[in-house]
Write a structure and sequence with these properties.
Structural class: alpha+beta
Strand order of the largest sheet: 1-2-3
Helix content: 40-55%
Number of helices: 5
Order of helices and strands: HEEEEEHHHEEH
Shape: elongated
Largest sheet: 3 strands, antiparallel
Strand content: 15-25%
Distance between the termini: 49 Å
Radius of gyration: 24 Å
Amino acid sequence: MDMPERVALESEIIRKCLSRSELQCSFLEYRGFKVIYRRYASLFFIVGTKADLDVRVALNDGIPGGIGGSNSGGGNNKPSSVITAENYENELGLLEFIHTLVETMDRWAGSICELDIMYQLEQVHFLLDEMVMNGYVVETNKSNVLRPIDLIDRESKKTEGMFR
């Protein structure tokens, strides 16, 4: 997916999540993606994954015509079958991951707000990188996630003190 298409998709998903009421489910499917979101005060945390797909396969025993095509050879085409490609992402697991991420951010910044994210974006990305690697959740222990960030903060305070 190219960048303009991705930006358009992200903005559509954000608008879709913002327009939903608090009484509606936190899961939705949109343009081939499962979207899981959670609202904390004025912050929305949104995670997307691929939706379950139906893959249609034509069984024609080597007879020309393909999927949905006509067969001029006069042979007998078997009907096409549907194979479901499962997506094994657990929506409740992703919702729990969002909750764990917010709890970790709360522990790191006190009470997380937009300004914490905006002014310390590099540390937020680092925190997220500690929890997710290559699309997989690898760490959910808050202490283990925050330990490297605390070490970086301590070292930066030491270096600030050296230059004064």
